[in-house]
Amino acid sequence: MNVPKYADIIEAAERIKRYVKKTPVLTCTTINNMVNAELFFKCENFQKVGAFKFRGATNAVLFLSDKEAARGVATHSSGNHAAALALAARNRGIRAYVVMPENSPWVKKEAVAGYGAEIIYCKPTLEARETTLEKVIEKTGATFIHPYNNFNVIVGQGTAALELLKEIEKLDIILTPVGGGGLLSGTSLTVKGFSPKTKVIGCEPEAADDAYRSLKEGRIVPSINPQTVADGLRTSLSDITFAIISQNVEQIVTVGENKIIEAMRLVWERMKVVIEPSAAVPMAVVLNSKLNIENKRIGIIVSGGNVDLDSLPWLK
Question: Residue 82 is part of which domain span?
């Protein structure tokens, strides 16, 4: 298996810098006092398309040869990766084909269409998504860009941590959410190369704890229909992300649904920053004493801020 290295992330940062935003690092004295630690929030919710996913999608699209790019790119997604790939393809002037479940939220459909992708709808099952994508690729010759089981996507995601570490020195821990593991994998590779004394910890909903169980058992344990408010974390690890995380991540910590919602609301109210439920998972871990962080310097990758305002979790 070809596993990315720190040098690949350095190259990716140079490749994508014309297109991605250098997102801000924010702090909050009130929250620091609550947890008796220094927290540094790397705000990928302010990234283009509202999520870190744009980094990986952009790197993967730019890495294609001209011959490959001419045939376009394709994926199946109902979330941030769909919009990220659509915009990355538009920036390179190529076609993007996105297979989306027909019951996807209208706001996500509009975002993907707005970035210029051709949407192909399918039934809301994994089998339907995969078979529809196969037909699209067979017809168009487009390159499949997987949202996380992709070398160039993973190294692109690692550039967020690279920016954080260059701006904030001597971090004791970096926390990221974990779903499929692209962000956590890329982050861990960056930290190993740039700041090896810093620990990397993944944060996961208890209701979708496949990464926690996978590391514990030493094999990929897939999620079976996980029910969590953190919809971006319902996917399972892949062979590439599992291999990287197994080697480079200190541990996976899980947290309950109510705690995730409370953490999301706290950030909205105290920091005046819109984050999505998946991005609130590391904050929930910190707030609920799941780690010994007293007097430590903690970096948190805030993964995204795409929220359906008609379905805020604390209104249900």
Answer: 54-144
Give 16-28 pLDDT, tens digit per residue: 999 999 999 999 9
- On whether the CB atoms of residues 156 and 56 are closer than 8 A, the answer is yes
> What does the alpha-carbon distance between residue 221 and residue 178 come to, in Å, rounded to a whole number?
14
Q: What is the CATH number of the domain that holds 67?
A: 3.40.50.1100
Angle 193-59-153 from CA coordinates, rounded to 5°: 70
Three-state SS annotation for 249-272:
CCEEEEECHHHHHHHHHHHHHHHC
Asked if 199 and 305 sit in the same domain, the reply is yes
Closest CA to 34 of 261, 264, 266: 266
Identify whether residues 164 and 269 lie together within a single domain.
yes
Whole-angstrom distance between the N-terminal and C-terminal Cα of the chain? 44
Hey, which bits of 142-215 come out as E strands? 143-144, 173-177, 199-205
In this structure, the answer to whether residues 188 and 277 fall within a common structural domain is yes
Q: Name the nearest CA neighbour of 38 among 47, 28, 46.
A: 28
Neighbours of 40 (CB within 10 A): 18
What would the pLDDT profile of 218-238 be if each residue is shown by its tens digit?
999 988 888 899 988 988 999
Q: How far apart are CA 89 and CA 110, in angstroms?
A: 16
Q: Do 37 and 298 meet the contact criterion of CB atoms below 8 Å apart?
A: yes
pLDDT in tens, 130-172: 899 999 999 999 999 999 999 999 999 999 999 999 999 999 9
CB neighbour list of residue 82: distance below 8 Å, 6 or more residues apart: 75, 98, 100, 108, 111, 112, 117
Does some domain include residue 1? no
d(CA 19, CA 21): 7
- Mark out the alpha helices in 115-181 (DSSP H runs): 126-140, 151-157, 159-167
Alpha carbons 146 and 156: distance in angstroms, whole number? 13
In a shared domain, residues 28 and 93:
no
